[in-house]
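seq/struct pair 1
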Amino acid sequence: MALFNGMIKKRINALIEQKKSFLCVGLDPDVQKIPTLFLRMQDPITEFTKSIVNATSDVAIAYKPNFAFYEALGLKGLHALDALIHHLPKNVVTIADAKRADIGNTSRLYATAFFETWGFDAVTVPPYMGYDSIEPFISYKEKLTLILCLTSNSGAQDFEEKRLENGKRLYEAVLEKALEWNQFENVGLVVGANRAEELKRLRAMAQGLCFLIPGVGVQGGTIEESVRYGADANQQSALINIGRAVIYPDGEFSSLNDFEKTVAKKAEEYVAMMRQALEQSAV
């Protein structure tokens, strides 16, 4: 076994064990939604995302910036992303939600960008251009490559849920390839929380993979089912993403302290639900 095999999975599971949490905070700053408090600041996006991190770092094990929210703002957004990365605690897992993959030469540059230039621990990638588009990411043995398998959006039915000639769903074929490509124990899957029965079945087929699980809340997924069906047999290897429900709490805020207390409370409520689900699963 090579030195780095399984390192990222061990890091994730150590954080789950330490914090008794699966919480991955989605850092998707939308100028139309962030509290007025931040709009009066010189750099609203940077200050907003930093406050989210300050409020949630005790219970979060991972943070997932969605690149679209930063790239849409041009250089200002990329500067905000850079500031955020430098503000994140060193022991958490950082996920570039970028969904990039291309022909080999281009993917090599994408992998360099996310894993070396930006320094992320993980990145989301679509699998539909095949192994040569994914291999440059997987070759970073100490990093995690999260392959889109069965996503939480309604459009998943257009391709991911289609049956192949052999009778399998396309997402099942993706899972089989992910298992085949997991030679360094650094491949994971993105599976929507609102696909509870499929999540349960996919986990049974892929005990050795880390799952990133979006779709809790507005999209219909629940914490209880995400923990029960998404965690592995050791109640580990799952990252449950919560975005809007944590980072955009209701109400007006007069100070950073007021805002951060509200966000912290919301994050702690979700983690309490995760811990309760863990206890119920252990029975």
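seq/struct pair 2
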Amino acid sequence: MLEGLYFDDFSPGKQFKTLKRTITETDLVNFITLCGFFESLFMDQIYVETETSFGSRIAPGVLSLAYAEGLSILSGIIHHTGMAFLGLKLQIHKPVFIGDTICVEIEVVDRRETQKPDCGIVTFHHRVMNQKSEVVMEYEVRRMIRRKAGKA
């Protein structure tokens, strides 16, 4: 079984890039239905064309965030080593439209020891990019990451 990187392997400045994912109509409909986001901005093309400056329906920001987090996990860097999601600070810069393809650039910005001998805290900066290489979202996330066995 593949292991992710351990706390000991992360250092500020280290960078990673995820695979890409296209946001589809099906993704939007499933998310709206599952989470109850029954808002004209996401469901009604005529409303979006006549009442907003977007021109076409957009994905909810939390859908884009969820997919960005999924891509980050899929990268494998915290596979079996990530212990807890401790919080994030989020900025949305541009909308993500149906048909947009996103990827995430991840950079380690900080790591700190904890009193626990089996883990530490790593802070990552995530830049979510669309197919035009535009930054659509940025967020800083703190995660508890497992240390290598025998390290304290």
